[in-house]
Q: What sequence folds into this?
């Protein structure tokens, strides 16, 4: 094992947290994952891998304490009754197996839960609508409801202990919790001893905290998760006023303070909007008020920043959700002097989308995330090669790079040919768009790792055609017998996507551009209309870029709002606000129906009412076409391939089917895992079935 620089030793000091001891300062804070109560094996395996990767504390997602707080279709943890203990015990066991402490984040969601499943009327400090658009109102809690809630929390704490957890949370954060609702002047309108003054609004938090300590504090550490600032200014809790006062009031009561900002979209802001360490200004006061260990987050992936945070007294333990998802082995890599091998989170929030979609978490950087149990994928280990065959990969984008890296790890000799001088494919281009610079890490990690591999040979500026591939396969040239086409995709220029199944009429009469051209540096002129029928980030980010370049831009979309899918990455609000602030004109719920010279015609998606808008350049952000011409041409020449000694031919990534970057990375990884393996399953992974 390489020796780490002693500068990082401070990160490997033990931390006493009440009655338990953490082996180092790496702390995986609670994070949702779409596994929860429905997929306990999947969950246990995923958390176990984090513990194996060196995290000292590995926590659950939020775990509902009672049917009175039912998160509906979101798949979170549950400890409603004793029957829920075994599923979570499995996770605690998996974490313990690798020497880490297991933490559980108990939650009552208050008015944040519509309770669509349990049909129990939700509760809140005062009468209020639930915070989704469900037609449900939460009722004001009576004293007896308060007593019930305290009893449920205590019982859930006792169950947590029985499930084997070492840390039990009292959770008042993210504005998603009943305790936070009680703290809030906006939602707590009570005039009894639980409302009014801040001391009164903190009463329930204090009671629950003390009762949790009383119930399980002898052997479990009691952690508080508290959002010290809601980023709402004087309307909300701020770190200068009430956030600070709450910490002052409860300073020495819990065994650990896990502090952040709310709401979740602020806490887990994407790299497009916030950079590493963005929470420090809000949370840095906490340590001066308590002697107990403090944990904070801020998408920390830099070991130097982590050391600085400890040395400057900002926090005692480095909290991480996304950095631990992108690289479950981050602590081990620092410990073993392999900092350059850290797969840094790019801050894209594809992981978060899994939770919103109620499916197991995915990660752009880490294709094994969510696949630990069902496919037995490990982020650091992969099966050895099955033959001495040589593999050619055409295209060095995310799919080609990931495939090369994973085949290289398996021990295969790989030749990677990339047309351009630079690797990275779409990532090297997209990372130059406003706010997306961290996306380059997809390339950086793979390039660094590939440089260390003498089994993978990379040829840049090497655009291959059909003939090259057949010719180069001969034994006296490169001698490969398998070909993966990872040649990517290109944006269409005919407008075909969701709204149009045929080309938009009149496109020849106007200057039409695609995102590829914009990214390649071609400048639009005059008034620009962007038609976004793709709905993820590209339409919005192109609008931002062109507006910043001083162009007049109108962004048209048939969807109800801009970059609609980014609701799942929790960016939508910020994207739309930024574009409005920049002066981009937004035309939502509008289809672009026809084009004439210097004009586009829009139609309201509800009434078909038409309007005309001046336009000199039209940018179409619609579908993409796979660059599969070489694949198709090779595929119909099976005899010729056979003669050339090419045994297999496969399309991966965007060339197989255009999609998000995470899908391309996954596709490259899957192809490498399945290469020369028997994978003829009906369902290619294990499932967790409901027992009947
Ligand atoms: P993916 O997301 O599937 O990895 P990308 O579009 O990001 O796809 O990357 C595809 C890469 O393939 C690009 O870097 C492109 O330059 C390269 N490429 C495309 N066609 C060829 C070819 N004929 N020979 C070599 N490289 C190619
Ligand atoms: Fe980071 Fe994106 Fe992976 Fe989430 S999906 S952990 S934000 S790289």
A:
């Amino acid at each position: 094992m390489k020796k780490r620089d002693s500068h990082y030793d401070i990160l490997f000091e033990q931390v006493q947290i009440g009655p338990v001891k953490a082996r180092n300062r790496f702390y995986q804070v609670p994070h949702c994952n779409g596994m929860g109560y429905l997929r306990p094996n999947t969950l246990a395996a995923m958390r176990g891998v984090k513990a194996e990767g060196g995290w000292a504390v590995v926590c659950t997602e939020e775990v509902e304490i009672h049917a009175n707080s039912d998160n509906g279709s979101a798949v979170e943890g549950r400890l409603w009754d004793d029957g829920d203990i075994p599923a979570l015990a499995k996770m605690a066991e998996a974490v313990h197996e690798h020497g880490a402490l297991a933490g559980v984040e108990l939650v009552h969601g208050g008015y944040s839960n519509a309770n669509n499943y349990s049909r129990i009327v939700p509760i809140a400090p005062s009468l209020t609508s639930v915070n989704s658009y469900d037609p449900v109102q939460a009722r004001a809690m009576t004293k007896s409801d308060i007593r019930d809630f305290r009893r449920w929390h205590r019982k859930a704490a006792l169950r947590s202990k029985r499930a084997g957890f070492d840390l039990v949370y009292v959770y008042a954060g993210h504005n998603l919790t009943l305790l936070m609702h009680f703290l809030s002047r906006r939602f707590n309108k009570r005039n009894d001893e639980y409302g009014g003054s801040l001391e009164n609004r903190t009463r329930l938090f204090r009671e629950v905290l003390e009762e949790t300590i009383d119930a399980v504090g002898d052997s479990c550490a009691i952690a508080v998760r508290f959002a010290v600032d809601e980023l709402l200014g004087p309307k909300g809790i701020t770190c200068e006023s009430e956030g600070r006062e709450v910490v002052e009031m409860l300073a020495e009561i819990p065994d650990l303070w896990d502090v952040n900002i709310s709401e979740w979209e602020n806490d887990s802001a994407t790299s497009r909007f916030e950079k590493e360490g963005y929470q420090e200004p809000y949370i840095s006061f906490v340590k001066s008020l308590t002697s107990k260990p403090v944990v904070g987050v801020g998408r920390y992936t830099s070991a130097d920043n982590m050391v600085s945070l400890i040395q400057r007294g900002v926090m005692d333990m480095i909290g991480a959700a996304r950095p631990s998802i992108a690289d479950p082995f981050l602590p081990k890599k620092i410990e073993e002097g392999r900092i350059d091998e850290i797969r840094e989170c790019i801050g894209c929030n594809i992981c978060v989308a899994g939770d919103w979609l109620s499916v197991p978490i995915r990660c752009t950087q880490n294709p094994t995330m969510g696949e630990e149990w069902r496919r037995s994928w490990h982020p650091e280990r992969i099966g050895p090669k099955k033959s001495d065959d040589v593999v050619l990969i055409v295209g060095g984008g995310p799919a080609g790079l990931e495939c090369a890296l994973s085949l290289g790890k398996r021990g295969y000799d790989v030749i990677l040919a990339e047309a351009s001088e630079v690797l990275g494919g779409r990532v090297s281009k997209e990372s130059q768009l406003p706010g997306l610079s961290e996306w380059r890490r997809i390339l950086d990690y793979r390039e660094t790792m590939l440089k260390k591999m003498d089994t993978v040979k990379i040829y840049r500026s090497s655009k291959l055609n059909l003939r090259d591939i057949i010719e180069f396969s001969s034994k006296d040239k490169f001698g490969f017998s398998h070909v993966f086409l990872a040649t990517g995709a290109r944006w269409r220029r005919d407008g075909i996507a969701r709204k149009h199944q045929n080309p938009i009429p009149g496109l020849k009469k106007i200057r039409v551009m695609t995102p590829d051209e914009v990214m390649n540096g071609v400048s639009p002129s005059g008034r620009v209309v962007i038609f976004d029928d793709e709905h993820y980030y590209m339409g919005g980010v192109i609008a931002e870029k062109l507006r910043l370049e001083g162009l007049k831009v109108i962004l048209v979309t048939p969807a109800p709002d801009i970059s609609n899918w980014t609701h799942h990455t929790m960016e939508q609000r910020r994207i739309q606000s930024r574009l409005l602030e920049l002066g981009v004109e937004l035309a939502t719920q509008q289809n672009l129906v026809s084009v004439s010279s210097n004009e586009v015609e829009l139609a309201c998606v509800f009434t078909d009412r038409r309007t005309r808008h001046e336009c000199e350049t039209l940018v179409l952000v619609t579908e993409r076409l796979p660059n599969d011409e070489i694949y198709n041409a090779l595929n119909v020449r099976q005899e010729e391939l056979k003669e050339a000694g090419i045994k297999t031919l496969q399309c991966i990534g965007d060339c197989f089917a255009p999609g998000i970057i995470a899908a391309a990375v996954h596709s490259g990884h899957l192809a490498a895992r399945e290469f020369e393996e028997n994978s003829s399953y009906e369902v290619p992974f294990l499932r967790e079935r409901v027992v009947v």
Remarks:
- The mean pLDDT is 97.
- The CA atoms of residues 603 and 610 lie 5 Å apart.
- The first strand starts at residue 15 and ends at 17.
- The first helix runs from residue 40 to 52.
